[in-house]
Design goal:
- The protein is built from five helices and two strands; from the N terminus they run ααββααα.
- It is mostly helical and 121 residues long.
- The chain has two domains: 57 residues, Multidrug-efflux Transporter Regulator, Chain: A, Domain 2 (Orthogonal Bundle); 47 residues, no CATH class.
- The longest helix has 32 residues.
- The protein is elongated and about 70 Å long.
- InterPro entries: DNA-bd_dom_put_sf, MerR-type_HTH_dom, MerR_fam.
- This is MerR family transcriptional regulator.
- Keywords: DNA-binding, Transcription, Transcription regulation.
- Pfam families: MerR_1.
Length: 121
Amino acid sequence: MRIGELAAQTGLSKDAIRFYEKIGLVTGRRLANGYRDFPPEAVLWLQYVRTAQKLGFSLTEIAQHGEELRDAPDSADALSALLAEKIQLIDARIAELATLRADLAARVGTGCPLRAAEQVG
């Protein structure tokens, strides 16, 4: 299918599809007239990419795991492992943000909130 049809079926812009192609997330072949031709399974794959992005996965992360997921996009084990790993990263980030919030809260009303915490008081 040509890029316009792929864009219509996925809700992505042609530019987004070209970008995904450039970074290797989707592959199309070139026809003799220079048009891109994408396989029908590109629709499902690009929908997966969009969902993964909404779940907080970066394009880099999606690309890193792309081969294994393209081969088994509905594999509960593979997806569960990736989701569990992402949850661990989110939990670590939440802990970092909680520490940062506590540090900021300790500095509120100190007169000079940019001074080191040991100097405040």
